[in-house]
Please model this.
Amino acid sequence: MHIGPVVVIDPGHGGTDTGARGTTLVEKDVVLQVAKILRAELERLGYRAVMTRNDDSNPSYEDRAALVNAYRDAIFVSLHVSSTGVTGDTRAYFYQFPVPFQAADASLSSEPVKQSFRGAIPWEEAQRPFSDQSRRLANLVQIELAHRFPQSPNAPTPAAVRNLRSVAAPAAAVEISSVSVSDPIALTSLSGLLAASVARGIAAFRPATPPVTSQP
Amino acid sequence: MPRDLKIALGILTVAVLVGLISLRGLHQRMQGLAESQSSEEKARREVLAPEIKTPTDAPQGARIYWGAGQDRVTSTTVELALSADPVERGKQVLQALIANTPSPEQRTIPADAELLAFYILPDGTAIADFSDALSSETPSGIESEQLVVDSISRTLENNVATVRRLKILIHGQEVETLAGHLDLTGFFDLNPPNAAPLAPAQSNPTPATNPPNASAPPKSKHPGSTAKPRPK
Model:
């Protein structure tokens, strides 16, 4: 029985949406393989792991977000493979929203800057209140990735990754290079290491077992 | 050495020589094909995207951002005749970004992509409408898609002082992602280095910098927005 935090694993793409395509590999298959290994690793650590897809289906972005948003205090990780780059270069991303817009002519600002916003948060900006937590999650995942994949940078990258935008929870995307490898084994053999690194990053962000506090 | 072995070795040597000669010929033919493709592309571009000339054009050093490795862009100063009108100037630098790429390795925008329309709304929102090729021929991936947006954003903000944010359309429409990953439903921040400080609020909005070309406006995510593209 899993009592730890829920981690929603999102293997990108699926179905007719193959994602990045190499000569023999397609992104949707590689990420599903990594996701299954990551799920097993997280369950071993005491998390409850849920996947946005377990087969070659292609849930919409909103369906993927709805799954994680239905849980309280969940964590969302979206997995991707690029079509370019050095094999094994692995990066964690967090969604960066633009700063509240102020037009060159202030009278034309379409988004008035409000310090105390009390209305509903637009669905397309569900991730905005979690920006800081997501940055921290991506940072901890990137530290683990850089430790195991020397080609990778030390810091996470801000990017407007679509899978993250409607997620009302700490969320990060992870992308490994690339489906364009000449030997598919060179990439698929990294699946276990990638899954272990992501799991360790998640564990650093929110441990599966809360620290025991001493009773008075 | 037995006679059969000598014959076999002779045949093998001839086969290797023929193979090498054929390989060289094949390589030359491939090169020729690539060159002809490049010249075809150039000819097509000259027909489809003629050079933008305006009465206020003056030779200047434009900072165009092309790829420098897989994950970053860097500026190259190119001497271009740039218009004083921000919209025409925006078109000119984006055209240069697509057409004047110094080398294939530095290319960020697919060679077949075309800038269909470019206009600036009164609030400083730049709308860049590209052909389908931008979406269909950009390598799929967060990093590669980000590189495309970075090259467009940085080229615009370093050459057009009046832009504040960027909206990218594909064939006049808002699309969910560029090539499967990067969100194109929102706007991208632009921070021109020589931007004028924000003006105090005025009661009368100023007119559009330049009326937009005939292209669908982006779906507004901001109900308060009054900026609407106007037909030319």
User: Anything to note?
Assistant: The CA atoms of residues 63 and 168 of chain A lie 13 Å apart.
